[in-house]
Amino acid sequence: MSESADGTVGVHRALVAAVRTVFHHPVQMVVISVAWMLASIPLVTLGPATLGVYSAVASVREQGHTDRDAVRETLSDHWLDALLFSGLLVAFPALAVFYLGRFTASGSAFAGVLGMVGFYLAYHAWVVFALGFVALAQGDDAFDAVTDGYRWSVERPVATVLVGVVTATLFVVCLVLTVALPLVFPALVAAFHTELAAQTRDREEETADAADSTAPTDRPVSGESLRNDFSATFRR
Questions:
Q1: CA distance 187 to 105
Q2: In this structure, what are the phi and psi dihedrals at residue 77, rounded to the nearest 5 degrees?
Q3: Residue-by-residue DSSP string for 46-80
Q4: What CA–CA distance (Å, rounded) separates 33 from 171?
Q5: pLDDT of 128-185, one tens digit each?
Q6: How many whole angstroms separate alpha carbon 202 and alpha carbon 106?
Q7: pTM of the model
Q8: Selection from 75, 62, 76, 77 nearest residue 28 by Cα
Q9: Residue 14 neighbours by CB distance under 10 Å
Q10: Are the beta carbons of 120 and 81 closer than 8 angstroms?
Q11: Fewer CB within 10 Å, N- or C-terminus of the chain?
């Protein structure tokens, strides 16, 4: 299956791969999900707990088991970045709810516009920071994590919408199944976003390798071509 230009095929493939990861590693994924639920109870720890989930899922994907040392190292390096990410993730929806509430109460068009803008920013920020958490778990710094996530979302607007729709659908399905919400949902979503980022990275590397393989390898040194022409002409 080839990748579509808008990235939608990559989203589908990432979802299938995430479900397959949960299916092949059920115990690890349940432990990761429950650990996230417990660690998030103080609320202020939501960001670091989320980063821990992404790091643990990445280690399960790459090694087949949870690498606790890698998770501890990731949290030690990026817990403050994760705290900032979680604060922004809460701030945008809060602003949207505030202004939409003002619009409902007063009918102010200005408040309605701000509420819709806040809703759009919240939706976009959730996708960008989800990919940012994946990048932090891979060892990127916070600036690169956010800018790469933003670039991905801007270059693939349809896929960005689809990522939000798929994430929301997974939440609803797990909510209906009740017990799946605390036992599966956190690790499943983290696996979905991790697979999405991994496939994007693999595809970019394949594109770069293909470009290198098609590039001319026997480039003449500056002036060499002229020297050869000169020699060929005057040795006759």
A1: 39
A2: -80, -30
A3: HHHHHHHHHHHHHHHHHHSS--HHHHHHHHHHHHH
A4: 13
A5: 999 999 999 999 999 999 999 999 999 988 999 999 899 999 999 999 998 888 999 9
A6: 50
A7: 0.81
A8: 62
A9: 24
A10: no
A11: C
